Amino acid sequence: MVFPWQSRNNAINPGTTSRLLVAKAFLIGTFAFGTRCCDATATDIALDAKATLTHRIDSLNLLVYTFLLTLTVLTIWLFKHHRVSWLHETGLAVIYGLIVGAAIRYSGSSTPLVHLEVEPESNSTFNQTLPPDTLWLKFPGKLTPNGSDAVEDKTYAYTFRSQVYDVVENEIDLKATFDPEIFFNIILPPIIFHAGYSLKKKYFFRNLGAILTFAILGTTLSAFLIGALMYGFVKLMPTYLSSSFTFLDTLYFGALISPTDPLTILAIFHDLNVDVNLYALVFGESVLNDAVAIVLSGAIQNYGEHYSSTGEFETYAFFRALSDFFGIFMLSLLIGALMGCFTALLTKFTRVRDFPLLESALFVLMSYSTFLIAEASELTGVVAVLFCGICQAHYTFNNLSENSRTRTKEIFELLNFLAENFIFSYIGVSMFTFPKHHFDAVFIITGFICAAIGRAVNIYPLSWLLNLNRKPKISSNFQHMLFFAGLRGAMSFALAIRNTLSEARQTMLTATSLIVIFTVVIQGGAANFFLNWLQIPVGVDEEIEQLNNHQVRSVYNSMENTTNMSETYLQDCGDIDTNPGSSRRNEKAVLARLWGSFDTKYMKPLLTHSRPTLLETLPVCCNPVARLLTTTEQLTQIDNHLRSYHL
């Protein structure tokens, strides 16, 4: 074969020499480029395969929890069908989680992880007391066959995850655990919002003084007492444990173990129609002490990080942390209330109710944004979203269309059910798969004892003080039931798992998880027995708050609109009663009565379509503003129920 640049006698044409060199260079370059492309393609294929494997493991991980929730739902149905009440759904979720966690840990199948040890250079500029946020690893890639320079250099960014404790972890172990921020930013908000949105306001406000006493004063007292007792006991423990705990660590443990989550007992109360005042005390305290605990734990952290220079008690640092506690709590409450009121105004003065789907979407987004606004402002989203839920139920709910009322109630009830059971399933799974548990029997037993002592100090002395000026009084069997209802749950676990870097925090996580499991499964399962033993009355008739097409009852003299806005209803929890001789007015808390009057005259007319209008309650000089804030529905509705009452 004769190439074009050759003559027929195989002699090279001098004029084509340069073209020959260029062609050879082109062929060599093309071959080298093709080799590099093949190597790069092989690297990309390997990375794609790793991404596919990660995606498959993520899917398997989610499938495990979906299976757990499905199994829990089916078992709950079976229990309800056969009227089994000795084990609640949360206890089932924990038990199933423990079984699946043990199967994951000891099944023998594993996908090993590839570990590469990296040490920082001695002249690194970052603060070496803390790990960097991201690690840029310059990886040489695959070497050429002859061992020369690498084909291609690549830099990979690795994000800080946690401290390494077990180098034999496998892929499924890591994937079976979640970032703790997922609990706070995604799972907890619907749980807390539902607690406020489904609050039985009538009985909550009737017992407001006792609930605030138990939830705020009692939880704070319990937290400090548990912290002090644990600190004293820890100092008597072996050196390896006592040296890892500071007084702030034990205070933090007291704060995270103080909130209660008596889902099991509340479900039994509801099924057996236990006295509504006892129900209100247990439920109201559990709703508010979650908020108190998270603010208190944040104040303790601020004390150690920003105010105290030694980590020991300092008067100035203590009062700074105390001011943080009250300031953050009140500002978070204010944000939640303002967002709830703003949503009520939007639904009142716009016609978004003509489009129920958009109305429901707006409701959900405004409620969730309350949590995010508070967190972004360095406040507490749990407190904000709780009081947002209370305001949404009290004001916004009355402006919604019937479809949106039903949809929002059901969607948050569903989210609450799934989120609660997911957390308890995760608690069970994580006992075997979470790599940073630190089991210490002495600390765990001490934690159980101190938690019980803290609960007793919360209930019995404060009940005695409340009974000095309370009617009806909190009886001794009610007090025992309040003590027994101190189950620990989602909030305690979420606070414990948020930071597990130190050995002390790992020990606290393990103790908290076991306390949660014990109280939910054993203590919750014995609730029926204690009700009978304490002779708590059941089957008590309840004044049911109805939220339906015809009427919406409220805690104050509030008139709630209906679907066609033609029938309205004015109901006071105690101030208006079908029995004129009843003495319910005197049963309401003083704070509730004072707020109720202001709410009826100004807040309800401003934020809902209720009567009386602002034209009737504001001074005459304010009529222009009052007319602007009064809707046509308020002016045209016929108050049949109120007229019947006065007649």
TrEMBL record:
Residues 79-533 form the Cation/H+ exchanger transmembrane domain. It is a multi-pass membrane protein. InterPro entries: Cation/H_exchanger_CPA1, Cation/H_exchanger_TM, NaH_exchanger, NHE-6/7/9. The chain crosses the membrane at residues 62-79, 86-106, 182-199, 211-231, 251-269, 325-346, 379-397, 417-435, 441-466, 478-497, 509-531. It is found in: Cell membrane; Recycling endosome membrane. Belongs to the monovalent cation:proton antiporter 1 (CPA1) transporter (TC 2.A.36) family. This is Sodium/hydrogen exchanger. It comes from Musca domestica (House fly). The lineage of its organism: Eukaryota, Metazoa, Ecdysozoa, Arthropoda, Hexapoda.
